[in-house]
Amino acid sequence: MKPPQSIAGHVTIPRIFLALTLAIFMGANTATGNESLSARVLTVRDGDTIVVSASGEKKVVRLIGIDCPELGKNGAPDEFMAMEAKKLVADLISEKDVDLTFDMEREDRYGRWLCYVFTEKGEMVNELLLKKGLALTITYFPFREKKRFLELQGEAEMERKGLFRDLSPHVADYSSAHFEGTRVYPGPSRTFIVAYEGLAKPWLKEAELAGEIERIRRYARQYPPSLVKTALETDGYMPLREEMTQKKDDGKPLIGYKEAGNHVGRYVTLEGEIRRAKNTGKVTFLNFD
């Protein structure tokens, strides 16, 4: 090991000291990135949350890197595919032994362990949920399997599995409050632009609208506002520009949705906040009220 050098009177701190300082600062909430332990599954709460017994301790485990549909609470209905996600996990590991592997963050802010969960056969439950289309990849924080998880999600979407098996009406049929602030604008070449909170995603096909609105709804429910923006930017959203919302040189007036009844039989550009979306396979219905 070369001794530390100094330049212009400023002494370089040895690397070994920096590493020790970093480890002390990060504290007990971090893991080595490959730390593993065995556990017994006591309860499967939903698709991405289980309760285990490990070394005599009862602990809630959150499957790292994924977000499954939520089971209904306080009288609310289950989200689309929530029971299917829970059943898959229960069939795989309920009351069975599993191996838990940590990433760089050992716990979340609720004190739950963040783990990759492996069955007795060595299958990763996080991956199996993504392969079946029963989970979405969380994008707002780093973890080592993110690229792989996004690839698996993309494959499930292409194969129309689970959450992606159809875009009607299950995926988007939730409370209208979740869609507040979402707008859809006509784009070029028979495509559409979905906008939310100053961000926009262009070049969407009609059949993709309901799924994209559902993505925004899930992010808005899962993350605080500052992280919703980060997640959407990761998924290809860009700053909304005025020219995106204006149809040029087509002679079609821009009207609000309440005026639609006065323009029957005419081509217009309709503007309004989407409350619900439904895709029948042939046409997409956008409910403004």
Question: How would you briefly describe this protein structure?
Answer:
With 289 residues, the chain is an alpha+beta fold. It has six helices and 17 strands.
Keywords:
single chain, 289 residues, alpha+beta, 5-stranded mixed barrel, 4-stranded antiparallel beta sheet, 6 helices, 17 strands, 24% helix, 28% strand, disordered N terminus
Q: State the major sheet.
A: 5 strands, mixed, barrel
Number of DSSP E strands:
17
SS element count, helices? 6
The N- and C-terminal alpha carbons lie at a distance of: 70 Å
Category by helix and strand content = alpha+beta
Mean pLDDT: 78
Gyration radius, to the nearest Å? 24 Å
- Fraction of helical residues: 10-25%
Strand residue percentage: 25-35%
**Largest beta sheet: strand ordering:** 3-4-5-8-7
**Outline, from the CA principal axes?**
elongated
SSE string:
EEHEEEEHEEHEHEEEHHEEEEE
Which consecutive residue ranges, at least 5 long each, have pLDDT under 50? 1-28, 167-179
Could you describe the 3D structure shown?
The chain has 289 residues and is of the alpha+beta class. Helix content is 24%, strand content 28%. The strands form six sheets. The chain has a five-stranded mixed barrel. The chain has a four-stranded antiparallel beta sheet with strand order 10-11-12-13, with helices on one face. Helix 5 packs antiparallel against helix 6. The radius of gyration is 24 Å and the shape is elongated.
